[in-house]
Write a structure and sequence with these properties.
128 residues; alpha+beta; DUF4440; 7 strands; Nuclear Transport Factor 2, Chain: A; Nuclear transport factor 2 family protein; 27% helix
Amino acid sequence: MTIDQQLDELGRQWMAAELSGDAEALDALAAPGFTLVGPLGFILVKDQWVSRFREGALVMHEMSWTDVTVREYGDTAVAIGVLTQRASYQGAPADGRFRVTQITVRDGDRRRLAGLHYSPIAAPPARP
């Protein structure tokens, strides 16, 4: 399986787990040192990221992961793509469109998430 295929499969598993709120699947997908940098600059370690789903605080209604480019650096690979989501956090809307950097590491014969970094994609300026 090519690195593109591996990360495509990991992306499908990640989205399926978030959409179904499957905290155990997310826990298994993430490496022990996993770190998320959120769209407002906050940082979550693995347990904090997973607990948002376990507790039902973050609910994903729709997700898409598109325009993905992949670079491999030995046992590490970086995928950069566009994540569009319709979601709620503690009942408040958490919709958005983000440029996401996904860092993965080789763990035996599979890949695991080592980090996610979300950056909001600004709406284009209004034309006069």
